[in-house]
């Protein structure tokens, strides 16, 4: 029955198609029915609620929009987020879930892996490789629009993610699976030294941090990941074969960005007018390097606890 309705959707007029699609989705568990991307809201959310990250804002919104415009992509979208703790990497990955699947991280089609939870024992690497490959392929078989988020990649066992290589390239065949519509997000602090150094050099040269370009950092991040023994991408064929669509740098945050985070948190608590708390929290953060103290060492990560102290 569901297959019949799907075929009808391909041939009827737009108004009738809308009616049939609702009927189809009422009796089907197809993830295409839950996949309702809203690129405009994603862009708005990125620019309104992610502070000090012009590169991440531009790259994520542009790459997601470009990927979704292509009804038959030749490869999945693979984004790798890099930067210090508290700079917005996890926040942006959640926004992707929110604006592609309305239920975000609770969606059965958005899958998150945490190394210390899912792959804790180095002696079980071979078993983890089999499990991960089987698990990803199984979920892609159920839903071509699956989203896979790999957090804390700096703690991932080297060699594990290379089992994903057949799912990431354009030339592979994965039987019974339309793997090319999937989205992968890797999140890592690996590469933060490269990114932070570029931000400091920009500041010392008297240039605005918003002048830092993506091409200034892409190759350096890729090289660092490939050569870093503590990176989940150490000697990775995924990096070597350039299967990552974009390395997305998250820059260190200055005091003004931290204070924007504080103000946003206060507004959520109904205390938007507490400018005294904004200044106190901003002044209580640790900034580096010395001298200069340009960038917060923890970004916006510790802000909720500090707000509680100063309120």
In short:
The protein is α/β, with parallel strands linked by helices.
Comma- or semicolon-separated keywords:
10% strand; 311 residues; two-stranded antiparallel sheet; 5-stranded parallel β-sheet; alpha/beta; disordered N terminus; 15 helices
Written description of the protein model:
The N and C termini lie far apart (59 Å). Helix 4 packs antiparallel against helix 5 (54-69) and helix 14 packs across helix 15. The chain is an alpha/beta fold. The protein has a five-stranded parallel beta sheet with strand order 2-3-4-1-5, sandwiched between helices. The chain has a two-stranded antiparallel ribbon with strand order 6-7. A hairpin with a 6-residue loop joins strand 6 and strand 7 (295-296). Residues 1-14 have low confidence and may be disordered. The chain has helices spanning 2-9, 14-27, 31-34, 39-49, 54-69, 89-100, 115-118, 125-142, 165-168, 192-204, 218-227, 237-240, 255-268, 275-284, 303-310, and strands spanning 77-83, 110-113, 147-150, 183-188, 246-250, 287-288, 295-296. It has 15 helices and seven strands.
